[in-house]
Amino acid sequence: MPRQRPLDRLRALCLALPEATEKLAWGSPTFRVRDKIFVMFTGGDGGSEMWCKASPGGQEVLVGSQPERYYVPPYVGHRGWVGVRLGGRVDWNQVADLVEESYRLTAPKRLLALLES
């Protein structure tokens, strides 16, 4: 079976969440809930990357623990977003956790209740 491209894997994770949609913005796919972005995909210089919201303090922990994988992205990094390089050996379970966390930080409470059920 051929390996899935990072964008295809990321798309499947994002669009599995309640009312998540995909919209092209700034030449890149963005994933939204109620038109608010919770994940951005970018081609980046070194390959495929995603940007997502992180809980307070989460950005520092991730970047500090694995700077080769995680970084502070431009434009939104000052708001606590984290960049994730999706090349090489990727822990897709961790990516899924980051996507869900970003969704939870963005979605309204009514939609969060759907995640619990």
Write the layout of secondary structure elements.
Blueprint: H1 6-15, E1 20-25, E2 28-33, E3 36-42, E4 49-52, H2 58-65, E5 70-71, E6 82-85, H3 92-106, H4 109-116
Antiparallel strand pairs: 1-2, 2-3, 3-4, 4-6, 5-6
Helix pairs in contact: 1-3
Reading the helices and strands in chain order gives HEEEEHEEHH
Number of helices: 4
What value does the average pLDDT take? 93
Give the second-level CATH assignment, the architecture: Alpha-Beta Complex
Number of folding domains?
Answer: 1
In CATH terms, what is the fold-level topology? Aspartate Aminotransferase, domain 1
Low-confidence stretches: none
Number of strands: 6
Instruction: Give the DSSP E fraction (strand runs of 2 or more residues).
Output: 15-25%
Q: What is the CATH class?
A: Alpha Beta
Terminal CA distance: 33 Å
Radius of gyration: 14 Å
Largest sheet: 6 strands, antiparallel
Structural class: alpha+beta
Q: So what's the overall shape?
A: globular
Q: Percent range for helical residues? A: 25-40%
Please, could you describe this protein's structure?
There is one protein chain. The chain is of the alpha+beta class and 117 residues long. The protein contains four helices and six strands. It has helices at residues 6-15, 58-65, 92-106, 109-116, and strands spanning 20-25, 28-33, 36-42, 49-52, 70-71, 82-85. Strands 1-2-3-4-6-5 form a six-stranded antiparallel β-sheet. The protein is globular. The protein starts with 5 loop residues before the first helix and ends with a helix. 30% of the residues are buried.
